[in-house]
């Protein structure tokens, strides 16, 4: 039995800026980090550390504001660099990128 084709619920938005920028980056030989897929491997030590944490249970979604220990470390780093004490509970949010931070 043949099923009828599925109708897309996505709007017809045409060519997106991501498509345009990806092509420009490819053509010019630029490093395209806009969508998070560099064409080279990360440092081995970092990959090993990430693998370790993944294999030991640190592989779930983080809290919306970011992992508390990371927010505290950021607050400490800002204090060390700029002598500005920020409250990691109310003044620091960790995001997955600039777009997420804007919205």
Provide a descriptive summary of the structure in words.
With 103 residues, the protein is mainly alpha-helical. The chain has 2 domains: 15-59, no CATH class; 61-103, no CATH class. Helices cover 43% and strands 0% of the residues. It contains 4 helices and no strands. The longest helix is centred in the C-terminal third of the chain and has 15 residues, at 68-82. The termini are far apart.
Topology of helices and strands:
Blueprint: H1 17-28, H2 44-55, H3 68-82, H4 98-102
- Global outline: extended
Q: Rounded to an integer, what's the Rg over CA atoms?
A: 20 Å
Judged by helices, strands and strand pairing, the structural class is mainly alpha
**Percentage of residues in DSSP E strands:** under 5%
| SS summary, helix count | 4
List the domain count as a whole number. 2
Run of helices and strands: HHHH
Unreliable spans are none
Quote the average pLDDT: 87
> What fraction, in percent, of the residue positions are helical?
40-55%
Number of strands: 0
Largest sheet: none
Termini gap: 45 Å
């Amino acid at each position: 039995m043949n099923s009828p084709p599925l109708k897309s619920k996505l709007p017809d938005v045409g060519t997106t800026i991501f498509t345009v920028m990806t092509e420009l980056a490819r053509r010019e030989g630029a490093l395209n980090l806009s969508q998070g897929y560099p064409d080279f491997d990360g440092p081995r030590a970092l990959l090993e550390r990430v693998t370790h944490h993944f294999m030991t249970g640190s592989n779930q979604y983080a809290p919306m504001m970011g992992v508390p220990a990371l927010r505290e470390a950021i607050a400490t780093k800002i204090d060390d660099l700029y002598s500005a004490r920020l409250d990691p509970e109310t003044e620091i949010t960790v995001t997955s990128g600039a777009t997420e931070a804007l919205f």
